[in-house]
Design brief:
The complex is a heterotrimer of chains A (393), B (536) and C (354). By secondary structure, chain B is an alpha+beta fold. Chain B has helices at 2-7, 36-46, 79-91, 108-116, 128-137, 183-193, 225-237, 246-253, 270-278, 313-342, 350-359, 367-387, 390-410, 416-430, 435-473; strands at residues 10-11, 53-59, 67-73, 122-125, 139-144, 150-154, 199-206, 212-219, 265-267, 282-286, 292-295, 475-476, 479-480. In chain C, a hairpin with a 3-residue loop joins strand 1 (247-248) and strand 2. The mean pLDDT of chain C is 78. The chains are: A alpha/beta (393), B alpha+beta (536), C mainly alpha (354).
Chain lengths: 393, 536, 354
């Protein structure tokens, strides 16, 4: 009896399942795997519209002479327009013979206009969309995102792979930009005490290419600064380096910093950097002290004597250069009225009582605060040589 | 040695109710008559048209030269033994009896039995039907005029396969002998390993026509008495006309006949049987079958090979881990492939999904159908390989595996992924030490693929939960099937996923109801060299 | 152990979001205090009642204590409670799956699937459910720890500061929901007669609650450390997203499938257990001799109720977060305490079988 019942229930499971079919199933070859998305705000015929462009993998099958098929992948670019972002996404999908699949998107690029006007919409749609991962690298384009996606990759196989690895690693390692993912960006925009930055991606025309075969490519360099949910300005390369020194704890990087000493230029290779923000309260006056510690190497000494005696001097000069960069960034931050350095955040965390007082006008307090920077730079490594080489005249 | 062994055999008399005698021969007694003519007539009647049964009439050289005859099956007996041990003594040596011993009608039988017969196993029988039974077993019956009891002498000399390496459970390092079809050879293989009088071997019979002998082996004091009684009880309940292999018995005495998992283990390895006996389990040796049944059976022994105990403990542990991984691959890999490729394309890294997508362009079949087809093909190949002679079998696997796979892929009929998956699954399922477990996995694999095609990974997990619930509800002779995991017995985990070295195998598995828990003193092994600690 | 899975299965996904919405960066403290006390109180009450009636279940001794009519009424109320409880669990299950892995599958299919699987296990009896739990538990714990360990490097401890910014009040206010989930241990009151070592059940139960509290606290801590206090409050399934966030190179990524596995196994056992308890209570209140016949109609009711299509995710969250907890607490804490009070006043106890 019991056995029969079990059998019956098994049968009924199978019947029900078969009778109704498979709902969420879709074959992998029927997917258009989207690898990077660009979201732009455009104005067409006087109507503001969204423009969504997407790079997706185009799988091709080629049957070689040996009989075994070998696939290779290229990317195609598709673009759609619409009143809402989803509308534009639908517009992209209408030309596809397959279902768009966003779970493998590695970069999302926000156009400059969209970032200046409607960042909140972009953020909403990206965080709400189930297929989108929080790890997706977020970038802001100088100009529109579509033209970034139009460029051809130089080293990597595809456009998206190139922008992904630049956004995730190399730009940060070389001190060109930061790396921000969706979750971090959302947290910054949600937090009561900090403003956001996004790495900047732009189109460049590589100089190596001859005029005839000119093609455009992309590079991640600099940062876009937000105040609240609006893009308010940009940081150039030096200011970006200042930002990295002020806020990041990095190791294994290779940031090249040209330093001038007594008319001679040399490069300080920074391998490690970390910083600490200390809010300082003297009476009613709010001040911050930011300590930066770096460690690195000098390889092109450019005739500089790198002995134990002269090293402190050299290090001091390096520190001076870093401090200068940092102060420049701070000036820029105050100018943009955007606390992307995390000073207020630090204040909130370590001095909640003070924070409660200034919370309603925290950006002004940040602007008014004195921010001092103290840099300790170490040279740990001078390459294969010790003393400088005495070359004959 | 055989003699010693058989002396210990206690015959389990079948107490069958009269209601059970509806089929087969009637069980009433038919005593031998004291007239040789009557007996001869009766026996010739019984063995009418039995070409292999030989009657030989003779006269004994004693007293008034009484008439006698022997009856035996020349296909089951050893002719030299009959000549040497039976005929020679009663015909020649009977004349050279020690002086003072007078042969009379009365003591003739006793003298023959006690002084003359050169065989290890001899007894008397007074019942014709019993005598018939003995003859059919391969013994020789000597009936003497004037006596209503026949002498039964064991002169079996059946043709049998030599003790050989077991084909289903080969190993590298451990012993190489395997069970054969002959019951007494098999028992000798076990007895050789456990030379203790506590190893009890009780016999029973099943099958009204086949009268197959079943030996119930267990170690007294270690095996749980209740389970032993239960086994005997269940054997006694079997009422069928034929038992041709141990599989018949298996299904008669299993707790559930419809379980997907084997509730009784079988093995061809005497070392494994002995090891199981020492753990407190019970072995059922069925005549004419090389596979011995071991009860109670839990899930764990199905995942262990006897080789594990010959290899170094660390290596055995590694191999067991490998085997559990293989189990999961064999059960789940095709299903997971279907689930991932048609539901959860986001569970794989981008690179991988890109490659997979490329290989699957322009294929006619969805992945689910592909996998099912290829798995089906693989099952066909396996069955074909198993049923064909070994040399042809190899050709089948070459043709099937290489040619079909290769050409199906290059024809753009199926994707290479499917071939890889099916091949991996096949290899994984071959690593499972138990053929029975492998069979249940084979069935469940298809169920899993279907579930995966319907509900993706959710279907797989729900399927696994159903399997788990099923496994948890199974019992083999009262022992929960998943012990020692559920119910958990930490102490018994020493011989589960891991195998600890022998000196640490202090106790027997508790879940078989071992009465003598301690196996050995753990503090043996060589004295440890000084570890550099403080000297006293 | 059973209790651990029972409580853990749901909370691990939901709690960080619900508590963080109110208690912000101090949310990880929430599961440690008030809810633990509620859980302990529930367990203690169930245990005390169980001591007085060692062979009776809740549905049976309420009749002994309150008389036939009132007792049956209480039993009926509990049937309703367990029914709604199970329906909510089933609904959570399908809701989560449709939002994450099976976006186009209709709810009713998933509901049918889990009720069938849970019902299959429930039909096999409490012993089988217990053994399944025992088997699954190590994997459950290991899987959770696996996610924890992988997620820790992505944490930024600074996000947890400042501690107790809004004072203690938000913590207390956000305790109600987790408290009602801890209170789920009341099912023990239906199971005690089946427990073979009742003495251990008590200490194991306390241990289970503490373990849940510990895991939950770490879970919340990690979620907050990764997503920050504000963002966490907006997330539907924070732990799922934590797992999605884990990424090491090109290979160790997309481990959210582990969470899905944990969730589905946990939910299956939960549904099995509650279905069993529900069928048992129904059988006892209605005076049936076996619980199995009650299982089938109840399964049908559960599928139909859980598939009621008009509840959206937001409404489900609302029900789970705001409306359900007070009701649940009545059944989990208030009613058992009242029963215990009656038992103490009337001095009733009964050792023998019902």
């Amino acid at each position: 009896m019991k056995r029969r019942r079990a059998l019956e229930s098994c049968l009924s499971i199978c019947l029900i399942l078969f009778a109704t079919g498979c709902w969420s199933g879709r074959e992998v070859q029927d997917l258009a795997i989207i690898t990077s998305v660009g979201i732009d705000r455009i104005s067409e015929d006087g109507i503001d519209q969204w423009q969504v462009s997407a790079r997706m993998i185009q799988s091709t099958i080629t049957t070689g002479g040996g009989g075994a098929p070998s696939g290779s992948s290229q990317e195609v670019l598709m673009q759609g327009k619409g009143i809402t972002i989803e509308d534009a996404v639908g517009d992209v999908a209408k030309r596809l013979p397959r279902q768009p699949f966003y779970a493998h998107a590695s970069t999302a690029i926000v156009g400059e206009k969209a970032a200046r006007e409607k960042t909140e919409d972009v953020l909403e749609v990206l965080t709400r969309f189930v297929e989108m991962r929080f790890r997706v690298n977020l970038l802001v384009a100088r100009g529109d995102a579509f033209s970034i996606l139009q460029t051809e990759p130089e080293m990597a196989k595809t456009n998206s792979k190139e922008s992904k690895s630049m956004a995730a690693d190399t730009a940060k390692l070389a001190g060109l930009s930061g790396s921000v993912n969706l979750s971090e960006f959302a947290q910054w925009l949600l937090s009561p005490d900090r403003d956001a930055v996004l790495p900047e991606i732009k189109v460049i025309r590589p100089q190596e290419k001859s005029e005839a075969s000119v093609s455009k490519t992309q590079v991640v360099e600099g940062l876009g600064v937000f105040r609240g949910a609006r893009l308010v300005g940009w940081l150039n390369r030096q200011e970006t380096q200042g930002y990295l020194f002020l806020t990041q704890k990095l190791s294994g990087v290779e940031i090249r910093l040209p330093v001038t000493k007594g008319g001679r230029c040399f490069t300080y290779f920074i391998h490690k950097t970390k910083s600490r923000i200390e809010p300082q309260l003297t009476g009613d006056k709010l001040a911050y002290l930011i300590r930066i510690e770096t460690a690195g190497a000098i390889i092109d000494s450019n005739g500089l004597d790198l002995t134990a005696e002269t090293m402190p001097e050299v290090e001091a000069d390096c520190a001076g250069s870093i401090r200068e960069l940092a102060l420049r960034t701070i000036r820029q931050a105050k100018e943009y009225n955007s606390d992307f350095l995390g000073c207020s955040e630090k204040l909130h965390r370590s001095e909640p009582a003070v924070w409660r007082e200034i919370a309603p006008h925290w950006r002004e307090s940040f602007r008014a605060a004195d921010i001092e920077v103290e840099v300790t730079a170490k040279v740990l490594n001078t390459g294969k040589l010790g003393r400088k080489m005495e070359l004959k005249q | 040695m055989f003699n010693k062994m058989f002396n210990k055999i206690l015959t389990l008399r079948e107490k069958k109710d009269s209601s059970q005698n509806s089929q087969g021969q009637p069980k009433e007694e038919r005593p031998l008559s004291s007239h040789i003519e009557d007996n001869l007539l009766a026996l010739r009647q019984v063995f009418d048209l039995c070409a292999d049964i030989t009657f030989r009439e003779l006269r004994l050289n004693a007293g008034n030269s009484p008439r006698a005859f022997i009856v035996f099956s020349d296909s089951l007996c050893d002719p030299t033994q009959i000549n040497e041990s039976i005929l020679k003594p009663i015909m020649q040596e009977i004349t050279a009896l020690p002086a003072g011993l007078q042969l009379t009608q009365a003591n003739l039988q006793q003298v023959i039995l006690e002084r003359l017969l050169n065989v290890g196993k001899a007894q008397t029988s007074t019942d014709i039907l019993q005598l018939v039974h003995f003859v059919l077993e391969g013994q020789l019956a000597l009936v003497i005029d004037g006596s209503s009891a026949a002498i039964i002498a064991g002169v079996q000399g059946m043709k049998q396969r030599a003790v050989d390496e077991p084909t289903t459970e080969p190993n590298v390092r451990g012993p190489r002998d395997g069970f054969v079809e002959n019951l007494s050879t098999n028992l000798s293989l076990i007895r050789r390993r456990i030379r203790s009088s506590r190893l009890k071997i009780e016999t029973a019979e099943a099958g009204a026509l086949t009268r197959t002998k079943i030996a119930v082996c267990y170690i007294q004091g270690i095996a749980n008495d209740k389970i032993v009684a239960e086994v005997k009880q269940r054997l006694r309940r079997i009422n069928t006309d034929s038992v041709l292999a141990s599989g018949y018995i298996e299904e008669f005495i299993a707790d559930q006949s419809f379980s997907l998992f084997p509730l009784i283990q079988y093995t061809e390895r005497p070392d494994r049987t002995a090891g199981s006996l020492l753990e407190g389990r019970i072995a059922l040796v069925v005549d004419n079958t090389p596979s011995v049944l071991l009860v109670p059976c839990t899930f764990l022994p199905l995942m262990q090979a006897s080789e594990d105990y010959s290899n170094a403990a660390t290596f055995a542990t590694f191999i067991r881990a490998l085997r559990f991984i293989a189990l999961n691959i064999a059960l789940l890999l095709p299903a997971l492939t279907v689930a991932v490729l048609s539901f959860h394309q986001d569970f794989l890294p981008t690179q991988l999904i890109e490659t997979l997508s490329n290989t699957r362009q322009d294929l006619p079949l969805p992945i689910f159908v592909e996998i099912i087809l290829m798995e089906f093909l693989f099952e066909l190949l396996q069955e074909a390989g198993a049923r064909l002679p070994q040399t042809i079998g190899q050709a089948v696997s070459t043709v099937g595996g290489l040619v079909i796979g290769q050409s199906a892929v290059s024809a753009g009929f199926i994707s290479p992924v499917t071939v890889i998956v099916v091949a991996l699954t096949a290899i994984a399922s071959f690593t499972l030490p138990s053929y029975a477990a492998e069979n249940s996995i084979r069935i469940l694999r298809f169920a899993m693929i279907i579930l995966a095609a319907v509900l993706g990974s959710v279907g797989i997990i729900l399927g696994l939960m159903v399997i788990l619930a099923h496994l948890c509800s199974l019992r083999s002779f009262g022992i929960p099937y998943l012990s020692p995991f559920a119910p958990l017995s930490l102490r018994d985990l020493k011989d589960s996923f891991i195998r600890v070295p022998w000196p640490l195998m202090k106790t027997r598995p508790r879940f078989f109801g071992a009465k003598e828990p301690i196996r050995q003193d753990p503090r043996q092994g060589p004295a440890q060299p000084d570890k550099g600690g403080k000297r006293p | 152990m059973l209790l651990f899975i029972l409580v853990m299965a749901t909370v691990i996904l939901f709690v960080p979001g619900i508590t963080a919405a109110k208690a912000k960066q101090s949310a990880w403290l929430v599961p440690l205090f008030l809810p633990v006390l509620t859980g302990f109180a529930t367990l203690w009450t169930a245990w005390k009642l169980g001591q007085r009636f060692p062979q009776h279940t809740l549905a049976q001794y309420s009749v002994v204590l309150l008389g036939k009519a009132a007792g049956k009424l209480v039993g009926g109320a509990y049937i309703l409670f367990f029914l709604v409880f199970n329906v909510l669990v089933i609904r959570e299950f399908s809701q989560f799956l449709t939002l994450t892995v099976l976006s186009k599958t209709p709810h009713y299919i998933l509901n049918i699937a889990i009720v069938l699987v849970g019902g299959y296990a429930a039909a096999k009896g409490i012993e089988v459910i217990a053994r399944m739990t025992q088997f699954v538990l190590p994997f459950f714990v290991a899987g959770t720890l696996f996610i924890f360990v992988l997620a820790i490097p992505a944490m930024e401890p600074g996000k947890l500061l400042p501690l107790l910014e809004g004072g203690v009040l938000p913590i207390i206010r956000s305790s109600v929901t987790p408290a009602s989930w801890y209170g789920e241990v009341i099912v023990l009151a239906m199971l005690l007669p089946a427990v073979n070592k009742p003495r251990e059940a008590k200490s194991r139960g306390y241990l289970a609650i503490l373990a849940v509290a510990g895991f939950l606290s770490v879970d919340t801590l990690i979620t907050l450390g990764i997503f920050g206090p504000e963002f966490t409050g907006y997330l539907q399934f924070p732990f799922w997203n934590v797992a999605k966030y884990i990424e090491y190179g090109n290979y160790l990524q997309r481990v959210e499938s582990v969470v899905a596995v944990l969730w589905i196994t946990g939910m299956t056992i939960k549904v099995a257990l509650v279905s069993y308890v529900l069928a048992l209570a129904t059988a006892q209140v209605l005076g049936l001799t076996a619980y199995r016949p009650a299982l089938y109609p109840l399964a049908l009711v559960q599928i139909l109720a859980a598939s009621y299509p008009l509840i959206s995710m937001g409404e489900l969250g609302e029900i789970l977060g705001q409306y359900w907890p007070p009701y649940a607490l009545i059944f989990e804490l208030v009613l058992p305490l009242l029963l215990l009070l009656v038992a103490l006043i009337r001095g009733k106890r009964r050792e023998g079988p019902p």
